[in-house]
Amino acid sequence: MKVVVQKFGGTCVESEANQLITAERIMEQRDRGLHPVVVVSAMGRQGQPYSTAELVSTVRQIHPDIEPRDLDLLMSCGEIISTVAMAHLLRTKGYDTIALTGGQAGLMTDTFFGHARIVRIEPHQLLSALQEGRMVFVAGFQGNTNEHQITTLGAGGSDYTAVALTHVINDTPRLPFGEELEIEPLQIFKEVDGIMSANPKSLEAGHSPRALPQLTYDECVSMSRLGAEVIQHQAAEMARKYRIPLTVRNFLAADGRGTEVGAHTRGADGSRPTAVVDQPALLVFDIESENPRLPLQIAERLERDRLTFFQVATKQKTTRFAVRPIKYRRVESLVRQVLLSRGAEVDINASDFALVSLVGEALRDRLDPWDEKAERVLTGSKIEILGTARDVISLSYLVPDEHRKRAVTELHKALVL
After folding, report:
1. Which residue of 63, 85, 236, 246 has the smallest Cβ count within 10 Å?
2. Beta strands in 245-384 (DSSP E)
3. Is residue 27 within 8 Å of residue 207, measured between CB atoms?
4. Number of domains in the chain
5. Distance CA 363, CA 262 (A)
6. Phi and psi angles of residue 97, each rounded to the nearest 5 degrees, phi first
């Protein structure tokens, strides 16, 4: 039996017309002799009745503070609704289908509500459904704890669900009754033509990115951490860890190639960076302390709270942190608690800063020359650099948020295109 995991984002199921197109993408794989396991996100975005944002706002109208356990229970409903709807739609077209929650599909998580991590997978019900020849639909973004509590996997968590299911199927050589099991590369469907060399919304008028035909695992992980929202960061890390090939493509195109992410592909020809990635509205704070261990202690605490942060170098002697905002979590209050508990002064500048990053295999072992080029582009465009950070294949620049689009556009035009 050959299985393919397909993940569909919220736009793919937000309307009846889009649901029919999504059904075509699923039936195309069944026509090829494959058995689809379909992971579905909640329908649409804020303003649409079954989106996660609307479900949360319904309760926050009563009071803004919701218990994390209750919030996860509420947020899981959007994916369940869209999963049942798509399973029902394919059943009306003659297929034997079954809809499963994340927990029913075997995704067991820790108890960190709002940003849980998968600790093991028990896919007995999923494998039994495949053995029976059913088309399996799984609610993304969620799992269960050992105590049968529903948890959610963080923003973009349906990607995490899809990668985890691909991994466990790939790691299962045979079905319960002995039939051999094979897995195709994971398919992630969005409303875009793949992963782009920059976020189109972050470029100034008159400028456009290009679709990237290929990315390495390292490029995908780096881009997801630094702000690209096409694949969730935990999903990208898991795909790299288990060497799971995947394709990101447009659900509207029957024959769209999209972007292939894999072990041996290269996102650039080696002469130029692959992409410019940006992260707006960062919370920024500086640490001034005679205790040299304090920055490390704060970094460890931020990691424990599962906050994405960037420690940037400045020309001053202070240690500067930039923290990414997270949907449905009060990041600023969490950061204040972290600082107060460590005896640090609380001085947070909210939403006035952005991180703009160059990413690509071309930077590997060549960070210094690319850093010089990038700084010349930014200073030549009169963009103030408030801090820098670097990793193996990335260079990041903290800039005023009002200059973010100009920084992305100038770096993209000068160094990527």
Report:
1. 63
2. 246-250, 259-262, 275-287, 309-312, 319-323, 348-359
3. no
4. 2
5. 18
6. -120, 160
